[in-house]
Amino acid sequence: MGIQLERITLRQIKMPLVHFFETSFSRTTERHMVLVEVVGGELSGWGEVTAGENPFYNEEWTESAWLILRDYVAPRVLKHRFESAAEVGARTAHIRGHNMARGGLEVAVWDLEARMLGRPLYQHIGGGARREIPCGVSIGIQDSVEQLLQKIETELAAGYQRIKMKIKPGWDVEVVAQVRRRFPDIRLMADANSAYTLDDAPRLKCLDEFNLMMIEQPLAHDEIIDHAKLQAQLKTPICLDECIRSAHQAEQALAMDAGRIINIKLGRVGGFAEARRVHDVAQRAGIPVWCGGMLEAGIGRAHNIALATLPNFVLPGDVSASKRYWARDIIRPPVETTTHGTIAVRDERGFGYGLDLDFLDSITVRREVIS
């Protein structure tokens, strides 16, 4: 069949969160996201760039993603004939870093190709191992422990199967202890977003007594060796996030037991092709994976649902209902969860949801067509 992109449209949208979201490095109250629409023939495919507003999670942010896409990625892929979407990543691989910008376009081409073939995106990427995605929630650092406990209570009542709480120095062991006292049997994990160093190993070891599913990315965003040293001192599994940007890095990390679980984020690894390779590396090693979130709007959320149907996504991820983040989402219908904490996989072609184009236009603050 082949794919030739005739036009690429970039949109920057602005969406306020229904509640602030705080990690160890910042508090977010609204999202500025770049959407990518690729056109081939009479069809469009859509992608979402998952970079934040500031270069804190990684080196990317909204403005950098716009420039990389406009000035480097788009000229490289427009008018080029691809035999399949799987070839798109290699076409821009010479661009150092900027996986989220590159991945925002790559996933849009996968969506376009799925629509061309008249099939759901999850089937097109090789998924379909499950018809419902088990869901967890990520709860940011709150203004008080009581506020955190109330939020956990609310999410458990909504049926979510796993609670992830953000931690940082000064908001860690004592807070986790209070959560465990209130909720002794829930599936609980802690996410540090690189807030600690190896010198903090004694402090992190204190978390072993709380029967956590995992501690996510406790050390630096580019650190693998020290994670191996830390894992050797902990009973709790380390989950690697920021430091796994490719299948090769996953192989290196697992070879030295730097972590025993991997969080796969589409943007962080540059799209579906590399995400599948990371998935396969972990599966061969007997290491479970789950799908992480980056406060996505509906397009990115729908892509995450498709990704999480691959067979080794055996742990509840961060894919949750639209209403947890947005008063109104950009897709129709919004993503919803069942009473038992799952999301049903949709069989419509492409990413499976319609676009609320009127609302999308109303929140677009910048738009550029590249042809």
Quickly give the CATH architecture of the largest domain. Answer: Alpha-Beta Barrel
Name the structural class. alpha/beta
Poorly predicted residue ranges: none
Q: What is the CATH class of the largest domain?
A: Alpha Beta
Major sheet size, sense and barrel closure: 7 strands, parallel
Enumerate the strands of the largest sheet in spatial order, edge to edge or round the barrel: 7-8-9-10-11-12-13
**CATH homologous superfamily assignment of the largest domain:** Enolase-like C-terminal domain
**CATH overall fold name of the largest domain:** TIM Barrel
Topology as a string of helices (H) and strands (E): EEEEHEHHHEEHEHEHEHEHEHHEHEEEHE
- State the helical fraction: 25-40%
Number of contiguous helices? 13
Comma- or semicolon-separated keywords:
single chain, 371 residues, alpha/beta, Enolase-like, domain 1, TIM Barrel, 2 domains, 7-stranded parallel beta sheet, 4-stranded antiparallel beta sheet, 33% helix, 22% strand
Notes on the structure:
By secondary structure, this protein is an alpha/beta fold. The chain folds into two domains: 3-118 and 357-370, Enolase-like, domain 1 (2-Layer Sandwich), CATH 3.30.390.10; 124-344, TIM Barrel, CATH 3.20.20.120. It has 13 helices and 17 strands. A seven-stranded parallel sheet has the order 7-8-9-10-11-12-13. Strand 8 (163-166), helix 6 (173-182) and strand 9 form a beta-alpha-beta unit. The protein starts with a strand and ends with a strand. The mean pLDDT is 96.
